[in-house]
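Hey Z.,

So I finally got round to the zinc ion thing we talked about over coffee. Here's the setup:
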Amino acid sequence: MTHNDLEKYVQYGVTGTPQIKADEKRIWLGEFRERVVFALTYDQIYKEEAIKVVKEKCKDERVKKIIIENNIRSEIAEKFMDISKEFQKDYKTIDMGDKKGDIALVLASDDAVEENNIILEKIPSLPQEFLNIKNKKICKKHIEFLQKEAPFFVDEFKEINFLDQFVGIKCEVCERTKKGFEK
Ligand SMILES: [Zn+2]
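And the result:
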């Protein structure tokens, strides 16, 4: 991934003094740190944008499984289960119980990958008016806006076509910014 937002990672977890493996596995949802390709925190997993970020990360061949902490709300967990099917990764949930830490999702390999950057300081964000669009269909003008302002997310949306218009589908972004979107 080349998007700027995706290049800012934070150092997390196992740095400095060596820790025993049990501690390590407690942090990374039962995995060894060396097998982790990418991870999301609890704050990050509930953001709508997390779906797209994880999809992009799943294009990485090293990723073999998606692991979700058991406390994640089921409607959110289901979205990641769908991604696991789409990208043919194993999917599992793990109950960390009272050992629950900050990590909510782990993309792991079957082998050591020694990836340095596995936690984003901040996941890329969509402009507010583009969040929770039901059918993910928006007008040409707003597709073009995304291409310019948030290109990472463009392929999550479709342009409303003639047939959509015929059945009454309207651009929700336009609806939300009734007076017309200034841009
Ligand atoms: Zn629009």
